[in-house]
Specification:
CATH topology of the largest domain: Rossmann fold
Radius of gyration: 19 Å
Number of strands: 11
Low-confidence stretches: none
Number of helices: 13
Structural class: alpha/beta
Strand content: 15-25%
Distance between the termini: 42 Å
Helix content: 40-55%
Mean pLDDT: 95
CATH architecture of the largest domain: 3-Layer(aba) Sandwich
Length: 346
Amino acid sequence: MTVVRVNASRKYDVIIGEGIFDDIGKLAKKAVGICKALIITDTNVEPLYAQRLTDSLKKEGFNVIKYVIEAGEASKNADNFIKILNFAAENHLSRSDVFFALGGGVVGDLTGFCAASYLRGVKFIQIPTTLLACVDSSVGGKTAINLDAGKNLAGAFYQPYLVCCDPTVLKTLPDEVFKDGCAEVIKTAILGDEKLFEKLKEKKITSDIIARCIEIKRDVVCEDEHDTGRRQVLNLGHTVGHAIEKLSDFKISHGKAVAIGMAIISNTCLTESECRDAITDMLKLYELPTKCDYSSDDIYKITQTDKKRGSSDITVAIPTTIGNCILKTISMETLKNIIDKGVSNQ
């Protein structure tokens, strides 16, 4: 078992260990005490893990209730946000109680925003069940829902009280969902660890790799918790990726869209062909897409509502070498040129 301590505005542990799932009740009791627990999960995860989590919590004395949303990005919306808040109020949850996010990034983002908003803030614990959530969305305190105009446009910075990652639950993931997480693992290696990037050539995601990705994100988050500076490197591939997700009506998943976004940025901004090819080759090794059928004009139109945009410019993450990434503030016109060139070079 590996414990990564996150020294953010609220200090908490990320616990990574095979077989810890049935001990979550004990771990949660230590972190937040015995209270009423609201498990929020989705229709894919609920039949697999909700009862196991319930049993673990009840064994330690928690009073457990559950709310299930439909699986998929479309559920990360304002309607479900309000429904969950009403459900919590109807069940008399207080500030001493806790929300559990049992699922992937959609469940984690939605649950975190609900926890940040309900009674102006209640405790919440992340139990990621996808690789993407383990290495990225469950750590760092970004919570959000989508608006009609785009992804993650309403949300809050709100750190969890505990994160429990049991890699054994990833064995039940469909291959395509697992690949989404691989895109975030590759992204993390590109921006922060050349040795990790080399290790990924073995095409084997281990607990040690998951822990290393969490350490890298932890270091970035603790330097810039509220995403005003260095933390924006974590958005490598995301400006274009979020646009592709929306254009596809979220039929193209987050990880695959980010993979395409990384390929487009690398194809345009990297002058060193060896580094550029290494990124593309790694994405292909993990069977991730590097191109899409949308026009550069359509992609650019969606990027104009990106949350990172200023009045006339936007900050983008650009890899310089494997293991290093810089932030560059560019005009929206320059972004348009980058997308044009990246799409044409696919």
